[in-house]
Amino acid sequence: MRNDCCAISGVVWISVTAGLESLTFGTPDHHAASAPGVASGEAIKASVTALKQYPQFNAALEKSGENLIIRRYYHIGVAVDTPDGLVVPVIRDADRKGVFDLAKELADISKLARDKKLKPGDMQGGTFSISSLGGIGGTAFTPIINAPEVAILGVSRSSMQPVWNGKEFAPRLMLPLCVSYDHRVIDGALAARFTRRLAEFLGDVRQLVL
User: Fold this and answer.
1) Helix (H, G, I), strand (E, B), or coil: what is residue 79?
2) Is the pTM of this model over 0.90?
3) Could you confirm whether 183 is annotated as catalytic?
């Protein structure tokens, strides 16, 4: 049987105004990790927290397409833009690390990628991936699933936008997210719930360190 992925994507805009100043945003480590084409420690932590609640997104589909493996470990692949193209190093056991530790490791592994010092093993064994174009630009994009993974998160550039709060328009920092998923494993309703939960975590990242 051919292992043809049936990829579907959903996009949501979330307000990330609350709590950004209190975490790694604004620190030297965060700026290093948030260079063009790199995600953030908050995005990794939020993803792991959501994956624990929705384990289907942390699964792997066998080549036959008949067996689904639910993985109980969390190795997060992070797409890094380098002069020689995109590479996806893996941060292992991300569930055992805090936001600040993830931001530091992300900065370190991104530097290794750009310096061409990654080893083959550094780019293997991921269970879920994150791709970010926030530092490059663009409104939204559809990330490609890194098989045998069954889902991937895409993060675009945030921007200030007027949002109606019931009484008036207020400026809010809005972040577009896109989750691509394999429809053979994940249906649209489950994907919407996962994306909503992920948006809740990223909407106020302070809860990730409580």
Assistant:
1) coil
2) no
3) yes
